[in-house]
Design brief:
single chain; oxidoreductase; 7-stranded parallel β-sheet
Length: about 250
């Protein structure tokens, strides 16, 4: 069947204690999934997402891990499978850094931080959980970015790491087929950082978007649910950007 109901399925969402990750986790719970809510530092936010999922009748737990640390990453995979009795139907790679690095401040450290969390961690965590995903004929959804296609001047390490993630989606889709589907969502301007939220800046951003609005976390979350539920889509990166990437 082309539609996979999420009721009774188990989903792990990284970076799900805040912002877009929390919205994705909430949408998956609303669609029927049980949740493993990963967080690095946002413990209170992760606990709130767990409470909301449980209020819907879902099973849910919050697990902390620093995904820069390979041992901690492997520990997260083990803890998630221990909690779910070995089942995993959906892995959502959302955790990321979004460091602003102007050209004059480019450094090896900025590169390493971006690549470690935004590209290496999704690769390694997918490999750790691939056997469980295969057993459930599950799927992976990675949150990429439209900057993977056109790098942003002040976010070069971030943009390059997201380009690596988008390529990883396509490569893993082939490597893990036919048992595991792998897709991505590439948001455009969604939830701008507070430093960019003055009305003049927001007005300029809206003018660049054909649909004339800033994206919301729910726009990304709905795309994740769509890709999780359709079993004839793999290797695709869906832009959720109001049309900005084609303008």
């Amino acid at each position: 069947m082309p539609h996979i109901p999420l009721s009774g399925r188990v989903a792990l969402v990284t970076g799900a204690g805040t912002r877009v990750g929390a919205a994705i986790a909430r949408s998956l719970a609303a669609a029927g999934a049980d949740l493993v809510v990963h967080y690095a530092t946002s413990a209170a936010g992760a606990d709130a997402v767990v409470d909301e999922a449980r209020a819907l009748g879902r099973r849910a737990t919050a697990l902390q891990a620093d995904l820069h640390d390979r041992e901690a990453l492997a520990g997260l995979a083990r803890a998630a499978l221990d909690w779910s009795s070995g089942r995993l139907d959906l892995l959502v790679h959302n955790a990321a850094n979004f460091d602003r690095v102007p050209p004059a401040e480019l450094s090896a450290e900025a590169w390493d931080r971006a690549m470690a969390l935004n590209a290496t961690a999704p690769y390694l965590l997918t490999l750790e959980l691939a056997p469980a995903l295969r057993a459930c004929r599950g799927s992976v959804v990675a949150i990429a970015c439209v900057s993977a296609e056109r790098p942003w001047k002040n976010y070069l390490p971030y943009s390059v790491s997201k380009a690596a993630l988008a390529h990883l989606v396509r490569g893993l889709a082939v490597a893990l087929a036919p048992d595991v589907r792998v897709n991505g969502v590439a948001p455009g301007t969604v939830l701008p950082p507070l430093s960019s939220s003055d009305e003049a800046t927001l007005a300029r951003l809206r003018e660049r978007i054909p649909l004339r609005r800033i994206g919301e976390a729910g726009d990304v979350a709905r795309a994740v649910v769509f890709l999780a539920e359709n079993d004839f889509i793999t290797g695709q990166v869906l832009a959720v950007d109001g049309g900005a990437s084609v303008a």
